[in-house]
Amino acid sequence: MRVSRTRWLARTAALLRRRLLPAPGCRLSAITAYSASADPSRVRALVYEHHGHPTKVVELKDLELPAVGGSDVHVKMLAAPINPSDINMIQGNYGLLPTLPAVGGNEGVGQVVAVGSGVTGVKPGDWVIPAAAGLGTWRTEAVFNEEALIAVPSDIPLQSAATLGVNPCTAYRMLMDFEQLRQGDSVIQNASNSGVGQAVIQIARALGLRTINVVRDRPDIQTLADKLKNLGAEHVITEEELRKPEIKSLFKDTPQPRLALNCVGGKSSTELLRHLAPGGTMVTYGGMAKQPVIASVSLLIFKDLKLRGFWLSQWKKDHSPASLYRCDFNITTLLKRRMLREMR
Q1: Is 281 within 8 Å of 257 (Cβ atoms)?
Q2: Fewer CB within 10 Å: C terminus or N terminus of the chain?
Q3: What is the dihedral of CA 140, 98, 65, 123, to 10 degrees?
Q4: Known catalytic residue: 172?
Q5: pTM tops 0.85, yes or no
Q6: List 48, 94, 172, 285, catalytic entry
Q7: CB 311 within 8 Å of CB 285
């Protein structure tokens, strides 16, 4: 099911990108580079007026660019990704839904073109990313309130800046907020080749943590394992290997993990729980298998395991803009050290 879901997302993403940049011969990637409209008062945007299948409800429209007021920032979008959460929001089954009609896209990076008289945090030429989900980044230009934006360094790769606010931030917060991990401690996770999973590997390596990375079996499993190990993964194992009794030998040289990160649910999450150290925590931030997390009574009683959930959008609501800036600053510092080479 997850394979077909991945292919479905890829096809949907390709269709949406073509709608924004319909010019023939245009080279597209997972990050779409935007070009400005010829009319300075009009911008192009991918808009949906009701919820449904993205390729049926999303339309390419011309929008009028409003005047820049006192606290407004005129931004030209440089790049924006298409994430599963973007698709879920359009479908209407996400935890946060904007008022309709809405512009798609929750993540991206733009360059400041002009600012209002009351703006103090950014200036023309700065790069900015959304402070929260629902901003609507699938457009060529926009005028946003200053409070809706966070400035980021412009000397990091464009694709890294465009994807900084969701996956790496999710990885960083889960590593920092649920267990007091020290250098040498280990973390176990499933969906390790996902955007969050790869960020976890690299941030954990930078923090001196060891990672046990679970992936689905596939014909090119060694190629994937080599890729993740190049990013800093210590162990890469399949879900089938995690269920075998022989896996206990892995923990002779690697401490039992105190933190598990679950993006799958179902049997995969149950296996993560089985290998947690007593008193450990499993954090669920996704449900790719669309199956519930099942924890046995014995694990909860005799190992005193904790089950938690994490949603970055809620974390951002609960924290000040200064906290958001510090989070992004810490991640970009790692980027500059070339510890986060791949953000997807």
Answers
A1: no
A2: N
A3: -70
A4: no
A5: no
A6: 94
A7: yes
